[in-house]
Amino acid sequence: MTKRLAIYLTNTERSGWDKPYANYAAMIAELLAPLLPNYVIELFDAVTGKLPPVPEDYDGVVLTGSIANVTEQEPWMAELYEHIRRLDKARVKLVGICFGHQAIVHALGGLVGVAEPQVGCRTMVLQEQAYWMHPWQENISLYCGNSQQVQVLGCWLVRNSALCHYMPRASIFWGVNITLNSIANMLSYTCNG
Question: pLDDT tens, 58-76?
Fold first, then answer.
């Protein structure tokens, strides 16, 4: 059975850093497509207001990262937050990458704030193994570059580093910024489970 996946472009930076791809959402779609062969992937642009009229029709939604900050609201974010709340109410599965997970937290009543800037490779400690985390690694090293952090959300901790915590909300979304295989595993688990 074919599933539908929407990828919302949230990056306001359009200088071409993501070449040779058309944009960040296209890059994620192209890199995820071989890992999700049973999905039709559709791209939307949250920044320009080009979002699906019925987001609940999708099996999953990925929100990209952005140089925009949740702590510095921009007009286009209001519609994005409304979509997130609709998706949450309909229990559509969400994966937020960097800014994407911060937007989910903000839209659902959590708190995102300014944090000590993080640039470079950081070691993350996984706190608990979820179904989709395979192969299991207790520690993973990731490149990061951000100055925003989820500060308040009632949920269990997936992983953390000395400077940043990554938290999910129940089984609906994962605010993790790991590998394409991990994202594919999460989508397969959430959209099939």
Answer: 999 999 988 888 989 999 9
Q: What is the DSSP string of 103-160?
A: HHHHHTT-EEEEEEEEEEEEEEEE-S--TT--S--SEEEEEEEEEEEEEE--S---EE
Pairing of strands 111-126, 159-160: antiparallel
DSSP β-bridge partners for residue 165 = 160
Number of domains in the chain: 1
Q: Which residues contact 57 (CB under 8 A, 6 or more apart)?
A: 4
Instruction: Give residue-wise pLDDT tens across range 10-23.
Output: 988 766 666 788 88
Q: What is the DSSP letter of 171?
A: T
At residue 157, the 3 state secondary structure works out as: coil
Both tokens of 114, joined, read 């300014």
What residues contact residue 31 under an 8 Å CB cut-off, 6+ apart?
A: 180
Dist CA 58 CA 127 (whole Å): 30
**Model-wide pTM > 0.85:** no
CATH number at residue 34: 3.40.50.880
Domain that holds residue 9: 3-111+168-192
